[in-house]
């Protein structure tokens, strides 16, 4: 698809953009490189001041409403969730503005030298290839630590959220960051390769699909350039017999339906102990059936449209194929046609066997897969039987079971009695085909720096 704003609620194309020419891309890279040479000399005090100003702008009531409405317009996120996303972006800005000087402070290490230490220095231009599903948050969680470390950023955002991409560039510029320290490149997916191959670009990070991540990593690998990948997930949500069932059900609904189910860390596979499977299913389907579908600009809407028609069509095909292979539909299973947009009903599927294609797939939409298991051992085996390894949520009040789950679930994050979520204070990332490297926390800011050893005698 071209670079355009297409309202997923009405399917109306509101604005189209032309991709940058190769000559303009070269100009912008030259501007970024020149900006880096001076920006790397700026103080933490200045960088923190600019990032805190960006947080102030994001928290301004009028501005936050404007940014939230832009997200909802371009990709259909319910407006209340969009407002929450803007607030979270301010949080990550404040976190790194305050913590980066500590995270990047030189560390003295006693050796046979008179003095020896480790220091952290910026790399240069870092390319961020970002997705549409959290169009502000994904960018700010990259930009805040990268800019505090002294790097400069270039953003290739998803083609369906160009106005969000341009707005983020403007926020950082108005906050005081020097010109060209953060630039949005409106380019096609095919143009990413020339950017990655450019010697001025030192590293790249991508959040998105597995094929996109594999492509970027291959290109960067041939150039021996550092990458961080945060890819797909099919997170398990395990509920054992001792769980607080009411709390687990309430969280399960939110964990599956947040952002209309379009989240890499959404709970997608609900693995329930046989002893409580029936009451869980009854309560879970009842709660999902009461969710308000509709115009995402309405504060009352809980489930909006899927971001694009192709996503809707793919999800619909996944469900129909699953049904053809024996899956049972307990709720939904079809489009919602009260509005003309990309709407799909909250859906619950059970009786999913291992030979069903959906067993190993990621469902990027409001579709929950429910599995019954005999015990914790079977739950862990099923949870780990996936090509993905991003997050996992498990529910039990038994301390021994909690410890066992933490040790044996193959995931980048394990949440006990809570929903998997990102937090600026904690590292975020996955294993297996969910990617590698970490964002956020101290680990995230260390991904794109030169960790330099210094030895003096």
Explain what this protein looks like in three dimensions.
This protein is α/β, with parallel strands linked by helices and 457 residues long. 41% of the residues lie in helices and 21% in strands. Helix 2 runs antiparallel to helix 4, helix 3 (61-75) crosses helix 4 and helix 4 (79-103) packs parallel to helix 5. The protein is globular and about 70 Å long.
Task: Give a quick summary of the entry.
Keywords: NADP, Oxidoreductase. Pfam families: Aldedh. By secondary structure, the protein is α/β, with parallel strands linked by helices.
| Major sheet strand order | 12-13-14-11-10-16-17
Structural class, from helix and strand content?
A: alpha/beta
Mean pLDDT: 98
- Into how many domains do the coordinates divide? 2
Write down the CATH class of the largest domain: Alpha Beta
Corresponding CATH superfamily of the largest domain: Aldehyde Dehydrogenase, Chain A, domain 1
| Helix proportion | 40-55%
**What fraction of the residues are assigned to beta strands by DSSP?**
15-25%
Q: Outline, from the CA principal axes? A: globular
Radius of gyration: 23 Å
DSSP helical segment count? 14
* CATH fold assignment of the largest domain: Aldehyde Dehydrogenase, Chain A, domain 1
Oligomeric composition of the shown chains: single chain
Low confidence ranges: none
Distance between the termini: 59 Å
The number of strands is 20
CATH architecture of the largest domain: 3-Layer(aba) Sandwich
Largest sheet: 7 strands, mixed
